Amino acid sequence: MSAGGSTVKGPNVLIIGAGGVGVITAYSLWFKNKCNVSVVIRSDYEIVSQVGYSIDSCDYGKIENWRPHSIHKTIEDSLSSKIFYDFIVVTTKNIPDGPVASRVSTILRPILTSNTEIDPKKESNILLIQNGIDLENEIIQTYSRDELENVTLLSGIQFIGSTKIGPGKIHQLGKDRLFVGGFDSCDIKARNASQEFIEIYSNEGYNIVEFEPRVRYARWKKLLYNAAINTTTALVQLDVPRTLEFAKNKDHTEKFIYEPAMREIIAIAASEGIIIEEEFIDFFINISRNLLFKPSMCVDREKNQLMELEIILGNPIKVAEKNNVPVPTLFLLYNLLTLVQSKLKEELGLLKFDEKTLKLQSTT
Amino acid sequence: MSAGGSTVKGPNVLIIGAGGVGVITAYSLWFKNKCNVSVVIRSDYEIVSQVGYSIDSCDYGKIENWRPHSIHKTIEDSLSSKIFYDFIVVTTKNIPDGPVASRVSTILRPILTSNTEIDPKKESNILLIQNGIDLENEIIQTYSRDELENVTLLSGIQFIGSTKIGPGKIHQLGKDRLFVGGFDSCDIKARNASQEFIEIYSNEGYNIVEFEPRVRYARWKKLLYNAAINTTTALVQLDVPRTLEFAKNKDHTEKFIYEPAMREIIAIAASEGIIIEEEFIDFFINISRNLLFKPSMCVDREKNQLMELEIILGNPIKVAEKNNVPVPTLFLLYNLLTLVQSKLKEELGLLKFDEKTLKLQSTT
Fold it and tell me: Where is the Ketopantoate reductase C-terminal domain (chains A, B) (predicted)?
């Protein structure tokens, strides 16, 4: 079922993942009124179809009873109206070690199949607004070259600080700044599609959206925050300012966890020829000190949801291993968080531990 | 109020701390029937005075409705009958960063004062059955030399795996092996007192209790387990076999957390001239693999109680810093667990974080 109808002249955008990021993304596109916004809303579908979203946004203010042009309970439902989706925006968590059904490549397949059936020549633009590094690999490795013929892969790096605080309730604390570019920075189609997306997304005076010619640089830069700070908050289950204030001498977290971890990310990026300026270490720590915020992995652990551990720590560590970059801080955080992730998987029924044999029985 | 009465010819023993360790200690002394056993029972006093303890012990079997010779709700209560306590056995958690009122030196003072009033010439033997290293320093530094004139400090290193699983309910999983000796291994009085305690504690065929001439060696050895494994389980909130099985490749926890952390403890001990054999690394990991057990710090975090972080990690790290021993694994675990400890302190009202200024307001 779809609520509302397509009424705007412009591209069709399908947003998958109606969390803190996805809903603000949807709202920004709807607000500009230059595209048709469809959103796949899994858990909150009933409440949103009845009363719409309640949004408290530092960019757009307090909004009640808002709905995008169309809402769908499932991907299949979003395909029933035979609309060609020009932009497929994925704002779900990216968890390659999670269930196959929730992997990005699995989610996208029926949409790409439907698009090809509707118009086999037209380009499908996939925009991944997600954390981490090397997340496009899962798609490139899963699909055949033929399947990717008319697919353009766009990378969205977002700084936003937006959280779903209840069913249909979104709280956006930090200004939306989105950087869009092709995963392949030489891809002209991706460059043009990025510009088109920026045009339908940008709301002057409200949000900031820019073309990012160096997507990989931007992703490594954002990883400074996520690999060091997001991970630590998940382990100790504290918001960011508390991790700084609660430290020994009030400085041990930044000096002996955040700074070394960030320096290791800088070293890994450098081993790939990407130079991240050291000043961003202080930049991210200062942001952290002044904003009462629980990053995504911390929230995931609290909510018993899987964390984006592999794209945030696993993939950088793979690059470090390939290029022989020592990363002792990141590796210890990763090995500790692997245990937390497995604990979450056990709670979600994704793995079983036999308390009689004391062995793991199966993994998914 | 004291329940029961002193009926045995032999020394008077006061046990402070009626948790998994304290109750089995009390039972072992009572079972031997060569001393009078008084226990200070704080939280479970009512239930124990009514129905006694329910103990499920791998050493002594299932015991119902058991009570020691005397039980007391408070230290003050234990002193009202003007008994000279020959042995004061402390089986509480040792948390020097916790509230002053629960520090070992604070707890002991009224008992030592009472003993001196009753018989100023008689020796008070203090036995600390607690984890960690350098825990005697708090007592030595707090008391004057005069106050310690007739005090003998005994060190108890216990391997037991006993937990309070409910009010008045104790579950002892691992055989009780207790090693007793003087903190100062040259102290003849401590040696004699240790032998006397062993005599009243040893139950042949049930428990194992031995004189330990090298207390410091034994404490560093036990720290291999506690500094590496106990700490990690507290961070990830898993029992020990799960920390091994849930690891990447099922070996990353032992290879990249437990082994490096234990090697660092060995290196710190070596910097003090104490040689811990490397084979104990495998020994402790193999024990861990085969026993479904949640160590004390993990249980403390689950129960929102302060952890013995300083005596298990803080003190060894101080020695490492003094002797310039690099301990990157232990230091990262320590800095992470300091945040968890502060979180627990905040929950217990021992520190306040102002969410407006994002600053710590006070500490105790």
Answer: 215-340
Residue A183 lies in a domain: yes
Residues A340, A265 share a domain: yes
CA of B236, closest CA in chain A: separation in Å?
A: 5
Residue B101 is given by DSSP the state G
Residue A59 has pLDDT above 70, yes or no: yes
Please tell me which residue of chain A has the smallest CA distance to B341. Answer: A246
> Do B197 and B225 belong together in one domain?
no
Please classify residue B324 by burial: count the beta carbons closer than 10 Å to its beta carbon, then call 0-12 exposed, 13-18 middle and 19+ buried.
exposed
Residues A57 and A198 grouped into a single domain: yes
Using the predicted structure, report yes or no on whether residue A364 has a pLDDT greater than 60: no
Judge whether residue A134 has pLDDT over 50: yes
pLDDT for residue B260 is more than 80: yes
Is B71 part of a structural domain of the chain?
A: yes
Q: Is the C-alpha dihedral spanning A311, A314, A315, A317 positive or negative?
A: positive
What's the structural domain count of chain B? 2
Which H or E element spans position A171?
Answer: strand A169-172
Structural domain contains residue B88: yes
**Segment holding A242, helix H or strand E:** helix A240-245
Residues of chain A contacting residue B256, judged by C-beta atoms under 8 Å apart: 331-332, 335
For testing the chain B interface, which of A335, A346, A359, A361 should be mutated: the one with the most B CBs within 10 Å? A335
B318/B205 same-domain check: no
Where does residue B339 rank: exposed (0-12), middle (13-18), buried (19+ CB within 10 A)? buried
Q: Domain range holding A20?
A: 12-213
Q: Across the interface, which of A238, A257, A340 has its CB nearest the CB of B343? A: A238
Looking at the structure, tell me whether residues B236 and B174 fall in a common domain: no
Query: Is the confidence at residue B88, as pLDDT, over 90?
Result: yes
Residues of chain A in contact with residue B264, where contact means CB-CB under 8 angstroms, are: none
**The domain boundary residue, chosen from A161, A192, A213:** A213
B4 lies in some domain: no
Closest residue on chain B to A289 (Cα): B358
- C-alpha dihedral (B348, B350, B353, B359), degrees to nearest 10: -160
Residue A233: band (very low, low, confident or very high) from pLDDT cuts 50, 70, 90? very high
Same domain, B141 and B269: no
CA distance B323 to B317: 10
